[in-house]
Amino acid sequence: MKTNPYRQLPPWTVQSSSYVLRDHWISVRADACKTDERMLIDPFYVLEYPDWVQIVAIDHTDRLILLEQYRHGWGTTSLELPTGGIESCDNNSISAARRELEEETGFTSDYWQHIATLTPNPANQTNRCHVILARGVTKDGICKDDPTERVHIFFPGRRSENIGVRWENHSSDARCCPGLGFDPYWALEFRANLNVMWT
Q: What is the pLDDT of residue 7?
């Protein structure tokens, strides 16, 4: 019989809980927690976000869709995979990915695959990130005209000479790392360019 090398540590006990902020985009919860060793942590802030999807979209020639988008948190342009929140109109994560990719880029696909479900920050966030693969994407959809989400589509191919320059001149969204890691070529390309940026 196989044994599990990982063991569950005792969870904290929530003594009380209240919301500091409740919004469509985020809720901030303040918990009064007691650890297994009876240490009181009050408040411990928990961020409740909706689940989101991250799309690894590749066309028939292995070009990958990346987006250049202004991100106000950092106050700069970020280079990232298409990503968006799952909404009430979505039946599942693939439905959300299909909608988000078309709204942001105008690209669609007939091949969709759920690759993984990850936790962006389990320390204090409740949401999950679903990595979705879309192969054979084509630009035959309709972009949503959203003035709060203006993007430039960057569509590098394998061995692209421009991708290194783009990684170097933009902030890189850490949420992209897991998604890019599921494609062996783009995982190596991403890691190589991070090495250039950080040396």
A: 78
CB count within 10 Å of CB 27 equals 16
Residue keyed to tokens 């985009």: 25
Q: Where are the domains of the chain?
A: 13-48, 52-197
CATH class of 52-197: alpha beta
pLDDT of residue 64: 87
Average pLDDT over residues 87-107: 95
Tokens representing 28 are 């901030």
* 73 three-class SS: coil
CA 81 to chain centre: 8
Our CA angle for 152, 125, 40, nearest 5°, is 155
- The confidence score (pLDDT) of residue 197 equals 37
Output the six-digit token pair for 82.
């298409």
Task: Please compute the mean of the pLDDT values over residues 182-187 and round it to a whole number.
Answer: 53
Say yes or no to pLDDT of 97 above 70. Answer: yes
| Angle (CA) 58 59 63, round 5° | 70
List the 52-58 sheet strands across, edge first: 83-85, 52-58, 129-135, 111-118
Query: What is the rounded radius of gyration, in angstroms, for the C-alpha atoms of the chain?
Result: 20
* Residue in 27, 9, 10 with CA at minimum distance from that of residue 19: 27
